Amino acid sequence: MITKEISSTKKDSRLKPKFVKEQQWSGYKNPPWFKKDKKKVTVLFNFVERCKSFFLQAFFHRHGYLYRDLGDHVSEDVRWGKEYGNRMECNPMYFTSGCILKNLFKIEKETGLSKEEISKRYIFLGGGGQCGPCRYGMYPQEYLKVLNDAGFKDFRILIFSSDIVQDPMPKRSAFSFNVIFKINILLAAILADFIHVAECALRPYAKDKEQVMRVLSEAEEILLEAFKSRIYLLKLPGALKRVSKMFASVPRADLQLPKIYVTGEFFANLAHNEGNYNLRRFIMDEGCEVYPGLFTQRILYDNWRRACEARRGIKYASSRKERRFHRSSLRKQNVSTTIVTWFYRSYVKALNPSAFGGKFDVLDLDHLAELGRPHYHPEIFGGEGNLEVAEAIYYADTVDGFISSKPFGCMPSSGVSDGVQTRILSLYPQLNFLSIETSGDNEVSILSRVSMLLFKAKQKVKRDG
User: Fold this and answer.
1) Are residues 321 and 436 in the same domain?
2) Residue 16: enclosing H or E segment and its boundaries?
3) Last residue of a domain, one of 176, 210, 226
4) What's the structural domain count of the chain?
5) Which label site among 103, 112, 200, 447 has the fewest CB atoms less than 10 Å from its CB?
């Protein structure tokens, strides 16, 4: 609240309040970024994992922005986030806010700029908008709270799917979440998914793991150069065919390895870094094959969820105006889903993951909804909704281990994996299930539990021949 101090004498100081409310507090300031300042401001950005921001730098390169990729999340980010953030938040919040802070203090040390100047010369672009029924969509304000408390007053942030930025943004804005940007971030996510698909296919079977990492690194550079081109839509298919041949040439051992599926909350599942203890790499290096976590699947789920909400809105609309609004929303989601699916299938065809053993299929969300419906209504949205329950049923007879990964304090994930999954396990006792809760600082404990699940998976493979 905005308050004003009231003067009082010693006599009545115990009777009168020190502060009274003058007006409602509407949040921290997030000043606009105008075109006239485009060349004066550097865009700082990163996302759930390194590879996605690595490819998105092509967009900033093509459009003439000053930019700085903050790279992958590391455990140190949690310390920064906890020092300045509110108590008892989930680790995606700590990792993201901590990463911003860590890098701003690094810039302050490197450049000698004051915090005020840094707030004027830098801006952060990232995800994590209205996330979390347990946080009631307050993540963007949390980012601003952390930054202001650390001395970076009025530092600006641009967050996807958030009301922290104006929609539509002012005409004189230096940056806009327009169709071109959305297509670019979609393609960055798809390319990152393909690198992840290749790593999951090659790393556990490779005769030389260091060779795999060298090939992946070289493939990233090839795809980035194609993506930087102004005719990237024409160049990317050829680049994908080239890296496919590179992946297929990596020598692989003929092994029968346990198959492990990982699901759960968005960040804990898809970070592929210290944000989730490098979970999939740990599983691969322990002698198991792990299904890749696809960001594209999550994009399609978000579209599917919004389409469900729109159909429900059309059905129960109280006026023509409200019905038109929901019909417009449904059309947007259908168009978006069509675009995402078209790009993904087209580029999958160019990459040909089957040539190197890659698993690339995205699941049918309508089918998953019906699988999980008797146990978890698909229109109870929040977190990953019905996905985890439906995926457990879908994979019960085809994987040797099933891991649910969620952040500390994540309400929707905890309710699902620790609650509803108890019912699923009673119906599918063959499911080798483990629920883990990540906090960013208990790696040994978490990975020891994962090792137990992997041991049981290996025993199962031996027993089944």
Assistant:
1) yes
2) none
3) 176
4) 2
5) 112
